[in-house]
Write a structure and sequence with these properties.
Shape: globular
Helix content: 25-40%
CATH class of the largest domain: Alpha Beta
Largest sheet: 9 strands, mixed
Number of strands: 15
CATH architecture of the largest domain: 3-Layer(aba) Sandwich
Number of helices: 10
Low-confidence stretches: 16-20
CATH topology of the largest domain: Rossmann fold
Distance between the termini: 33 Å
Strand order of the largest sheet: 1-2-6-5-4-7-8-15-14
Mean pLDDT: 92
Structural class: alpha/beta
Order of helices and strands: EEHEHHEHEHEHEHEHHEEEEEHEE
Length: about 325
C-alpha cells in the first residue's frame, strides 16, 4: 500500500507494481480472447479522466444535466432520508463535482462530514480532494486510489469503523457498466460493508429512445471517440504497445435485446500490433473489434429487483423532468 497523509486528507492506494501487473494481466487476457475485450475501468488514467470530464460537458451527454437537475432540486430531501450523522463513501468519484450538492446538504445537517471517495485514478482523487477541502472546512477526506473490490475489502475489514452511519454513493451510470452477475456481486459487497441502517444512493440511467442515447456515446466533436481510443494509447505508454490509433475507429451501438449501449474499437485494416511488455503480437483482421464498454439502461422494476437480490430495499426514487435518469435510495435490509 502507498499512503499519503496531510491534515484532513489521507490517500491510500495500491503500489504501482501491483497496479501495473493488474493492467498488464487484464490487457493480455482481453486481447488474446475471442472476441477481444478490454475492461472499461482502464479508461481512467490521467488523460482518460480529463477526457471524461470533457464528455460530461458535451451537449449530447444528457446524463450530466439530468443528474445536476435531480441533485439541485432534491439534495436536502436525499440527505434527510438518513437519520443521524453519516459518513459518505463514494465509488467511482471522479472529480467529485456532482457530489458537492450532497456534501453541502449533509453539512447543513451536521457540522463535520467524513467523505471517502474511491477511484482508480490517483491524480484525479488528489486534485479533487484538495479542492473539496479548500471549499469545505467541515470536511475530512480519506481517499482510496484503487479498484472497487480492493476498497470494499479495506472498508469491510473494519478499518476506522465510524460512529456515523455509512451512506454509499454510486452515482452517474456506473452500475450500467456491470452485467447482471457483476452488479449483484458488487452491490452485495457494498451491502456487506454497510452497517444495518446504512444506505446506498444509486444512480441509474433509464430506458429511452436511441435518438437520445446514441449521440451521448458518439458525439459530433469526437470526444467520446478520443476517450475510447485512449485505452490503446495507455497500452502504448505503459506496456510498450505499438497501436497506431489512426487505424482504429470508435463504434457505439444500441443492443435492444439487452437494453445496453455497446462501445467497441474497430480495426480499419488487417494488422499485427506488438506489445513489448507482454511479449505478444496481437493480430487483427480488417473490421475486427475490441469490446470496451457496456452501458445498461433500466426501468424501475429492474432496479427494485436488483436491490432485493443484493440485500437492499428500494424505498425512493428521484427523476429529472424528462424522466431520463434516476437516483434511487436503497435502504440496507438486515442480514440474516
Amino acid at each position: 500500500m502507498t499512503r499519503v497523509q496531510l491534515e484532513r486528507l489521507t490517500i491510500r492506494g495500491l503500489n504501482l507494481d501491483a497496479g501495473g501487473n493488474s493492467f498488464a494481466q487484464d490487457v493480455a487476457e482481453g486481447l488474446t480472447s475471442t472476441p477481444k475485450t478490454l475492461p472499461p475501468k482502464y479508461f481512467y488514467d490521467g488523460l482518460g479522466s480529463r477526457l471524461f470530464e470533457a464528455i460530461c460537458r458535451l451537449p449530447e451527454y444528457y446524463l450530466t444535466r439530468s443528474e445536476a437537475e435531480i441533485l439541485t432540486t432534491n439534495s436536502d430531501e436525499i440527505a434527510a432520508s438518513v437519520e443521524g450523522p453519516v459518513r459518505l463513501i463514494e465509488f467511482g468519484s471522479g472529480n467529485s463535482e456532482k457530489t458537492r450538492c450532497l456534501i453541502e446538504a449533509f453539512l447543513r445537517r451536521q457540522k463535520q462530514l467524513h467523505y471517502v471517495p474511491v477511484d482508480i485514478s490517483w491524480s484525479s482523487l488528489e486534485r479533487s480532494s484538495r479542492e473539496l477541502l479548500r471549499d469545505y472546512p467541515g470536511l475530512t477526506v480519506t481517499a482510496y486510489a484503487m479498484e472497487y473490490y480492493a476498497a470494499l475489502a479495506r472498508l469491510s475489514e473494519g478499518e476506522a469503523r465510524p460512529a456515523a452511519r455509512n451512506v454509499a454513493l454510486f452515482l452517474g451510470s456506473n452500475i450500467g457498466n456491470f452485467d447482471e452477475e457483476e452488479s449483484r456481486a458488487f452491490l452485495r459487497g457494498v451491502r456487506t460493508m454497510l452497517d444495518d441502517g446504512g444506505a446506498l444512493l444509486l444512480g441509474a440511467d433509464l430506458k429511452k429512445s436511441t435518438g437520445v442515447l446514441l449521440p451521448a456515446y458518439d458525439d459530433a466533436l469526437g470526444v467520446t471517440a478520443a476517450f475510447n481510443l485512449n485505452i490503446l494509447g495507455r497500452i502504448n505508454r505503459e506496456l510498450g504497445g505499438e497501436f497506431n490509433l489512426k487505424t482504429f475507429e470508435h463504434r457505439a451501438a444500441y443492443n435492444d435485446r439487452l437494453s445496453r449501449i455497446e462501445m467497441r474499437l474497430m480495426s480499419r485494416i488487417r494488422q499485427v500490433v506488438p506489445i513489448r511488455a507482454l511479449s505478444v503480437d496481437i493480430a487483427f483482421e480488417e473490421g475486427e473489434t475490441i469490446h470496451t464498454e457496456n452501458s445498461y439502461k433500466f426501468d424501475l422494476d429492474q432496479l427494485a429487483g436488483i436491490a432485493k437480490n443484493s440485500g437492499f430495499s428500494l424505498t425512493r426514487s428521484w427523476f429529472d423532468e424528462s424522466n431520463w435518469f434516476s437516483f434511487n435510495f436503497l435502504a440496507a435490509r438486515r442480514l440474516d
